[in-house]
Amino acid sequence: MNSIDTERHQVHTAAGWRTLSPQLWRLFLSLHQHRGHVVPPATLFGARAPFNGSENWGRESIRLLRRRLAGSPFRVETHRCIGYELLVDDELDREAA
């Protein structure tokens, strides 16, 4: 079973399908395109304006994405001072990798 619905911007979790906001969907797709590799924050977030006026809006976006991905075969790892990596549990979702 595929765990991603690209038309609805959804990810399948143990609790069912979860819809990602447009911002989180873009972040997820960027990580998914580079899955298995560390992606620097500059690549993920570029020079976009701060999210809700917070200087930590990039980290906040990653935190929100992790919450939405809970129970799915996807996991976001932080590599301090380097970037973020999307890992896929191949046993749960061979088609997504």
Beta content comes to 15-25%
Rg from alpha-carbon coordinates: 13 Å
CATH class, named Mainly Alpha
| Physical arrangement of strands within the biggest beta sheet | 1-2-3
What's the arrangement of secondary structure elements?
Blueprint: E1 4-5, E2 10-13, E3 16-19, H1 22-33, H2 41-45, H3 57-69, E4 74-79, E5 83-88
Antiparallel strand pairs: 1-2, 2-3, 4-5
Helix pairs in contact: 1-3
What does this structure look like?
There is one protein chain. By secondary structure, the chain is α+β, with helices and mostly antiparallel strands. The protein has helices at 22-33, 41-45, 57-69; strands at residues 4-5, 10-13, 16-19, 74-79, 83-88. The chain has a single domain (4-88), classed as Arc Repressor Mutant, subunit A, CATH 1.10.10. Strand 4 (74-79) and strand 5 (83-88) form a beta hairpin. Helix 1 crosses helix 3 (57-69). The chain is globular and about 35 Å long.
Give the gist of this structure.
The protein has 97 residues and is of the alpha+beta class. It has helices at 22-33, 41-45, 57-69; strands at 4-5, 10-13, 16-19, 74-79, 83-88.
Main features:
97 residues, alpha+beta, Arc Repressor Mutant, subunit A, two-stranded antiparallel ribbon, 5 strands, disordered C terminus
